[in-house]
Amino acid sequence: MKLQFYPILLILGNLWGCSVNSSVDYQNLSALDLWYDHPAGRWEECLPLGNGRLGMMPDAKTDSETIVLNDISLWSGGVQDAGNPEAARSLPQIRKWLLEGRNDLAQELMYRTFTCGGQGSGRGNGADVPYGSYQILGNLHIDYRYPDGDRRITNYRRSLSLNDAVARTSYILDEVKYTREYFADFENDVLIIRLHASDVGALGFAVRIDRPQAFSTTTDGNELVMSGQLNNGTDGRGMRYQTRVAVKLSGGGKLSATDKQLQVSEAQEALIVVAAATDYKVADIEKKCRESLDKALKIEKYTSLKARHTSTYQELFNRASLSLSSSVSGTDTMPTDRRLIAYATDPSDNGMVELYFQYGRYLLISSTRPNLLPPNLQGLWCNTVHTPWNGDYHMNINVQMNHWPVEITNLAELHRPLIRLTGNLVESGKKTAMTFYEANGWVAHVITNIWKFTAPGEHPAWGATNTGGAWLCAHLWEHYEYNPDKQYLQQIYPVLKGASEFFLDILIAEPQHGWLVTAPTSSPENAFYMPGTKKTANVCMGATMDNQLLRELFENTVTASTILDVDNELRTRLRQTIVKLPPTRIGSDGRLMEWLEEYEEPEPQHRHVSHLYGLHPGNQITPAGTPDLAKAARKTLEKRGDSGTGWSRAWKINFWARLGDGNHAHLLLQRLLEPTFTSEFNYTGRGGSYPNLFCAHPPFQIDGNFGGCAGIAEMFLQSHAGTVDLLPALPDVFSSGSFDGLRARGGLEISAAWADKHLTSARIKAHIDHQFRLKMPVSDTDYSFLVNKQPVQPEKTNEIYTLSLKKDDILQIFQP
72-99: string of b/e by CB count within 10 Å (b at 16+)? Predict the structure, then answer.
């Protein structure tokens, strides 16, 4: 890291914002506020708001403000048949060449025959092809009109409170204080903007709404209505949407509707309410908008409207908290963009870690809700019709990383949209399995969308990986591990079974050891040199990640089958196959092998580290259980390096935490928070965080935010290896602190406090009857244990305590 780079970034950051005379009241700052002393100069500086379905990002400018609007379900494209009849016919020859080590020829044949039918994702620009793209809902423009004066602005401040999910803007212009509040109403499912002036009659503005294409705007009484239909890539008649905007005045003023805009003058307070709907699973979008708008407008008091929103949001957000000691003074009063720059050179600002951790939880709560859709590559927020990589669901790390914080940070119900999406892929995945592989069961490859796309991508270099569905199944199982429930297990079992049946049908024996392997496949997006040449190839057999995923999938299916007492024959077949899968192996250089062969890599520091899936998020590599593999994983990470795209850095935080190296995990957290001020596509050596703390791939991709949040939690609590491990990877800089409300597998909710890296107390609540093994930091002092305030003495073996709790029991641990 070149320290001299950051002053330049600071200068650029100041240039991007509007120049305003700022004098901020620091008394009003909260530890969980993002705040700035200038308006947003670009989208990646805007503050995100969302209620899981609707979102907005205001730039908070003082003259003409633009608020980018989003609806999680607004997609172009449509359902398509992406089958390719040539694929199955060419599969025997592809496999023959792979078995002969002629991967380059196999890949060339796949270029011609073993890709999806049609245009696929449009090479990441799918807005006008059947695959489609997640798209911006619209731009709400507010043009402000002020009384005559010298137009001097002072005391400018904009902020986002994670505590109540409300953004605020305030400034003084010619001795009049103007304030704005924005929130995506969790209770009424609308977007709210409240405008207020300290002087009667000083508030005036005009409201317009548009989007880059496919829209028309009209007025309906004193309301704005924008509607349109997106391109489905075939006949043009894709998804329909409507957005309706109303203004409610309080304390006087004039409201009129003219020339496709609403105009307000001589007012003091105004409430702008935005309702929106798409016909994705909504039969009557006009009725939906009308009802949502009317419901919000009928609430007379703004304070009541906001209070209900905050209460609904806090039911989720307040479940978990984190408090860390900090040796830094002053940085907590810096604007967030400058604080980000300061953190890059002095990472002792633990308040920044607390903020980033809770920001990840905030973004997750804001970008998904039960019974709808999971967060996509950009969560809920985008500002174009051609969202990068279509804003879709990438199944070779990205959509999975989006859900890593869900269980451990106590937001379990937010896993359900991904679980539902996985179940919805089964029917399409069955057709793909038969068309491409002539196999039973179901399969999904690298990319999918709301239209249930499961075929390989249009380019085998990245699109051949066929374990996307297997990785999704890991999330179905993880939700069960954290929330054991037999009825839920019965619901997901057919999905696990179908995924397992597919791989049982398509595995082939490789010639050297007779192991059963996937073929064709790839190690996601990574390439290797053909032996003895500098010719690159991606397509292979039995990539290490595949072997780890299939072992996990098969074992989970066996366990589920045993619990449910079904499918004895399938269970036997799976057990017989598990022992024939390739083991995770160590190469001659001491690193974990990524492929069956020790290929030379063109890019040794590639952003993907997929062959460490067994370390994280899997559990097949642990320092205690497989020390040699853990040592090889460490060496692999050292070779890969600490740079990479934003999400790659986030994954490495989790890797190092699983290895018990808190200091290295913290170093990667610092790298994840490295200031980034470019949104140009860049895969190599770039990454970090934008001024609004969005993760930079670059461009923006939200998985890094979620992966970083999960990685922070993994430093304090792990439960993947058969034990509940308290404080497994504490960095030195986190020597004292506490957390509350984190969750462990087995239905446990845990709080803990520590000082000088020694556990001082812990509290564990059982949500089901559960026996578990507990590991705590080595201490010079014995701990005392109480269950429901009664002393107990758990069995102890080699620093591992064994305890049994009944549902709703509370275990307290403390130093006497």
Answer: bbbbbbbebebbbeebbebbeebbebbb
What is the DSSP track for 27-48? GG--TTEEEESS--SSGGGSPP
The span from the CA of 752 to the CA of 762, in Å, is 4
Res 700: pLDDT: 95
- Where in 108-212 does DSSP place strands (E)? 138-144, 153-161, 166-173, 176-184, 191-197, 203-210
Measured distance CA(157)–CA(192) in Å, rounded = 19
Task: Report the alpha-carbon distance of residue 187 to residue 582 in Å, rounded.
Answer: 51
- Low-confidence stretches of the chain (pLDDT beneath 50): 1-27
Q: 3-state class of 169 per DSSP? A: strand
Terminal C-alpha separation, the chain = 45
- For 700-722, give the DSSP string: B-THHHHHHHHHHHHHHEE-TTS
Environment class of residue 533 by beta-carbon count within 10 Å: exposed (0-12), middle (13-18) or buried (19+)? exposed
Question: Quick one: pLDDT at residue 585?
Answer: 98
State residue 739's pLDDT score.
98
State the pLDDT at residue 28. 58
What pLDDT is recorded for position 329? 61
Residue of 415, 422, 320, 429 whose CA lies nearest to 375: 415
- The tally of CA atoms less than 13 A away on the side-chain side of residue 54 is 26
Q: What is the per-residue pLDDT for 685?
A: 67
507 Cβ contact list (under 8 Å, min separation 6): 516, 517, 518, 550, 577
The whole-angstrom separation of Cα 401 and Cα 701 is 11
pLDDT in tens, 653-673: 999 999 999 999 999 999 999
Cα separation, 628 vs 590, whole angstroms? 9
Place of tokens 């999971």: 374
Write 257-262 long-range contacts (CB < 8 A, 24+): 257/219, 257/221, 257/222, 257/223, 257/224, 258/219, 260/208, 260/217, 260/218, 260/219, 260/224, 261/206, 261/207, 261/208, 261/219, 261/224, 262/206, 262/207, 262/219, 262/222, 262/223, 262/224
Which tokens hold the place of 522?
């790839």
Tokens 């160590």 — which residue?
Answer: 586
Give the separation between CA 792 and CA 92, rounded to whole angstroms.
Answer: 63
Other Cβ atoms within 10 Å of 478 Cβ, number: 23
Residue type, position 481, single letter: E
> Cα separation of 816 and 813, whole Å?
9
Whole-number Å distance between alpha carbons of 561 and 700: 41
* Tens-place pLDDT, residues 498-515: 999 999 999 999 999 999
